Amino acid sequence: MTEPSDIPSVQSSPPRTKRRWLRRTFWSLLTIVVVLAALVLLGPTLISTGPGTRFVLALVNHQIAGTVAVDDLSAGWFSGQQIVGLTLDDPQGQQVALIDQIDAPDVTLLSLLRGNSNFGKVRVVSRELHLVQYDDGTTNLDRALSTTAAATQPPGRSAARRRQSQPEPLLPPDLRLELELTGSRVVYAAPQTDAVELKDLSATLRVLGPADLAGSLKAHVEQAGASGRIDATFSAQDAFDAQGRPQFARATFNADAQLQDIPVVALDRLLDQDDRLLLLLGPVLNGRLKIEGHDATLVAHSEHLEAYAVLSVSERVMTVQPDSRLRLHVMPGAWAKWFAPPDGQTAATLVDPVDITIKFARGSVRLTEKGADWANASLKADARVS
After folding, report:
1. Once rounded to an integer, what is the mean pLDDT over residues 287-306?
2. CA 290 to CA 295: how far, in whole Å?
3. Neighbours of 162 (CB within 10 A)
4. Which burial class, exposed, middle or buried, applies to 12 when counting CB atoms under 10 A from its CB (0-12, 13-18, 19+)?
5. Which phi and psi (to 5°) does residue 202 adopt?
6. DSSP assignment, residue 244?
């Protein structure tokens, strides 16, 4: 007869708890992967909905000092992008831009994530753009698009940092773009001057890489009751190197720009001339600049100016061709502005208007990457004062 054992029996059971934990982990990970994949695939669709659009705008507005709002946004991984009813306000809540529509049919989200700079055709329909220049030279557009950190940073520090940094390329090396811009109204306001208004604006820009640029601009110009028109086309070959850095001295330009009754006060304020151009030229300016390769012809006339110049560029030297001429009808006010002596010195005072006529025999100036070397220019001309 067998005696009962004092050792308790041990029954083997499968590690169900461990298997359940592994099973739950597997299905949890699979669920996360599926959800993430769905979010990635449906991301553009979600962004294009009202809540998704508001979420994206909240991220954008957190990064800039101004405020962006849109009525409708359409995005796609493999399709083009569209924005309808875009507004941009400055930090004070004043409207800077109102754009009816932006169409970018050749731009996909996937190409943007890859850093592709081939944007293809982009069409912008702008209803109103209101630019305001402040006394420090910045504009409301600068302040609206600045980062929140830059908006609270003293201007002097950021400017000093920019001066210390190395200049960067102006264009991406692989940039491709066909931009079409139409706008009903563009207003530019500067200190101590009437606002300049552009109406019926139409502009194009074609970029087939930094070495191949072309564009056009048409608009009516109005200021303080004066009305004029600008009509210009241009193309530039080799104006930028392969890295997108400017090299204008090596470029070949073709352009045809016509100015009709352009208010001079607008140019005066834009160039910060303190009425110098207005007193020298008169209230309106007409002219035409035509550039063909390395040759250029300039014809301009206003109430006090008649100019005709033929210029040519060869081996980085710009030459003024014979028969180029300039006539100025100088008023006493213009004389005082342009020939004002340093403090404490006296100068000749012009009592009556005079005519200054200059006929150029020849002249030349060397072009550098920084501009014309006027300090070492040579000129031979016949000047008469009457």
Report:
1. 94
2. 8
3. 9
4. exposed
5. -140, 125
6. S
